[in-house]
Structure formats: C-alpha cells, structure tokens
Amino acid sequence: MNKKEVIVLQDLLGTNKKIAAEIRGELERRGILAVNLLSSPGAGKTALLEQIAMRLKTRAKMAVIEGDIETELDAERIRAKGVPAWQITTGGACHLEAKMIAKVLPGVDPDIDFLFIENVGNLVCPASYELGEHLRCVLLSTPEGDDKPKKYPKAFTTSDLLVLTKADLLPHLPFDVEKAKTEALELNPKLKIFVTSAVTGQGLDELLDYFWAMHQELQSSHA
Amino acid sequence: MHELSIVSSLFGTLLEKAREHNAGKITLVKLKVGKLSGVVPELLESAFDMYKKETIAENARLEIEEIPLKIRCRACGTETEITTYTFFCGSCKSPDLEILQGTELFLEKIELEIDEPSSP
Ligand SMILES: Nc1nc2c(ncn2[C@@H]2O[C@H](COP(=O)(O)OP(=O)(O)OP(=O)(O)O)[C@@H](O)[C@H]2O)c(=O)[nH]1
Ligand SMILES: [Mg+2]
Ligand SMILES: [Zn+2]
C-alpha cells in the first residue's frame, strides 16, 4: 500500500457557478433581466413583489420564482396579482441553488422582461449561491434593526441593491436610516439604496425605474 | 447551514478522485476557506464528520486553511487586509477596490492510500 498526494484545486461552489453562468447566458439571449431577492424571513420580499407586479403590469411582462422550505403560499400570492409564478420547495435547504432554477427555467415564458427570484428567507446562506441573476437585491426591514448590515456582512457585500422595507413603520421604531445606509455602504460602496413601503407605496417608483433602466441596458448590450 | 450541502458535494468529488486513483482510503482533505467565503469552518468540520461515517474517508483528517481578506486599491495601489468589513482603501479611503483574496472556498488537495494491484 502506498500513499499519494493529489492536488485538486477545485472550487467547492464551482458547479453552482457554472450552472449560474449558463442560466445568465440563456436569460440574456432572451433579453430577460433576473433579480435575486435576499432577506431574513418576513422582511417583505413577497409584499414587494406583489407591489412590483401591480405597478409593472402596464409596461412590462414579468415572472416570479419563489423559493421556500415548504408551501406554495408565496407563489399563490403572486399568481393572485396576475403574474405567473413557480414555487420551488427546498424541503429543508436554507437557500436556492442554480440547479433548482435551471429545472424551472424551461417552463418560464421566454418573452418576459423580468424574472424575479425570491430566495428562501435567510440572510446568510443564499449569499453564497449565484442563481444566474443580473442584480442581487438584499432587503432589510425596519423592525429588524439598523445593525444588521454589520452582523450579516456577506449578504450586503455581494448585493447590488439594498432595499430598506417597511418604511411606514419608521415613526414607531428606533431604526436609524442614515446609520443603516452608512454602515451598508462601508461594506459595499457600490450598493444602490432604496427606502420603500409596501403599505404606502413609498420608493417603489424609484426602484422600478432602476430595474427598468437596468433592463434597457441589458437589452442594448445584447441586441 | 449551507455547509451541509457544500460538504455533500465535496464528498461527490472526494469519492470520484479516490476512484480515479484506485485509492482504498482517503487520509487527508485540505480545504482553503476565505474569510468572505460565507461558510463557517466549524460547521464544515461538523458536516464533514457526519458525512465521512462509513465511507473510505472515515478516518480522514480535515484540514482547513483560513484565508484573510485582502484588497488592492485601484486608485493608489495600496494593499490592505480587511478585518472589520469596511471596504475602503486603508491609505486613501477610495472605495474602488479589487479583492485579491478571501472569497475562495476550494478543495486544495487530498491524501490517498492506494491499494497494491493484487498479484495474479
Ligand atoms: N407595515 C408594513 N408591513 C409589511 C410591509 N411589507 C411587508 N409587510 C408585512 O410583513 C410580513 C411579511 O411579509 P412577506 O412579504 O410575507 O415577507 P417575506 O420576506 O416574503 O417572508 P418569507 O417569504 O417568509 O421569508 C407580512 O405580514 C406583511 O404584510 C411594509 O412595507 N410595511
Ligand atoms: Mg415570501
Ligand atoms: Zn488607495
């Protein structure tokens, strides 16, 4: 019996990255902008998507992929707004992986403009998995507290957008918007920040304008 | 706790490599884990101990090298090690940075015990 050392140098997330790159390529060929929404449970991802669905209806076509550990509830909420939605139930896994998206993708209408992916409610694990998205969007709801960026850095360092949700509750909470913004920008100076409320509609038009501009950019660069 | 799914796919690679080299045992598994890789080394260890039972890696040692987070400033060229997750150049405070290391998560090497080919 002899001993042997084998140098492997293999990225442990390499398979996921490869599938994600294939998904991104496929979406770009179809002119679809994909957005991956990340947050802790209950920060308001589905509520934000419901609002987006209502506002986008007249000018664009969208679809939603919902990731949850169990239930079809979130997909049903989106369908109730007249938007096609696919539910991925991970059966315990705390994050979506690119291969789960790849399975659903063939069924998604190729003529849509936007694909929104709501990740499993978890501010840690989803940050390690690319899903083929063009924009990663982390949500932080005001009741969670303004210290979250520093406590969960990876979600903030890997995102393109930060949406501070439930802004309508600010009068009742000790949440310091400027502190949250400053600390998030220290983690990621390129972060675009929006302050929104699904109740009053605050900030939603600005957010949609941004998504729309990014969609135009994607289409012109892959025309 | 995505460490479990990472270790589960790691075992796919380990068993494949062992087969490739006709190894009867895996004795060492060495990983490199960046500070910004998003995984917790201790959780990788517990997941590894769980998965290795009744496999050819049953007695394997898991070695994890942690890689600090280092950036280079695109404005002034200074290299800084980031320990506080404050992403500004340590010298000129520019936010225009390039990450040099610290996001990696990879299997560096393994050590195997190769069975002698049985004599005819
Ligand atoms: N006041 C207020 N409540 C909100 C807002 N957005 C969401 N909520 C409430 O917060 C709760 C959670 O919202 P969801 O949209 O289900 O949150 P989620 O992030 O999709 O939750 P999971 O999918 O379970 O992770 C619900 O009771 C919503 O009504 C908001 O802007 N203001
Ligand atoms: Mg939801
Ligand atoms: Zn500098």
Describe this structure in words.
The complex is a heterodimer of chains A (223) and B (120). Chain A has helices at residues 14-29, 45-56, 73-79, 98-104, 148-151, 153-157, 177-187, 204-221; strands at 2-11, 33-38, 62-68, 85-89, 114-118, 135-141, 161-165, 192-195. Chain A is an alpha/beta fold. Chain A has a single domain, classed as Rossmann fold (3-Layer(aba) Sandwich), CATH 3.40.50. A 7-stranded parallel sheet of chain A has the order 4-3-5-2-6-7-8, with helices on both faces. In chain A, helix 1 runs parallel beside helix 4. Chain B has a single domain (3-114), classed as hypothetical protein PF0899 fold. Chain B contains 2 helices and 6 strands. In chain B, helix 1 (3-20) packs across helix 2. The chains are: A alpha/beta (223), B alpha+beta (120). The A-B interface holds A 1-15, 93-95, 97, 124-125, 127-129, 150, 153-154, 157, 186-190 and B 1-2, 5-6, 9-10, 13, 17, 21, 23-24, 27, 31, 36-39, 85-88, 95-96, 104-116. Guanosine-5'-triphosphate (GTP) binds at residues 39, 41-47, 74, 121, 165-166, 168-169, 197-199 of chain A.
Radius of gyration of chain B: 19 Å
Instruction: Find the biggest chain interface.
Output: A-B, 33 and 36 residues
- What is the number of helices of chain B? 2
Instruction: Average the pLDDT over all residues of chain A and give the rounded result.
Output: 95
The H-and-E topology of chain B, N to C, reads as HEHEEEEE
Question: Which residues of chain A sit in consecutive blocks of at least 5 with pLDDT less than 50?
Answer: none
Order of strands across the main sheet of chain A: 4-3-5-2-6-7-8
Low-confidence stretches of chain B: none
| pLDDT averaged over residues of chain B | 92
CATH architectural category of chain B: 2-Layer Sandwich
Give a count of the beta strands of chain B, DSSP E runs of length 2 or more: 6
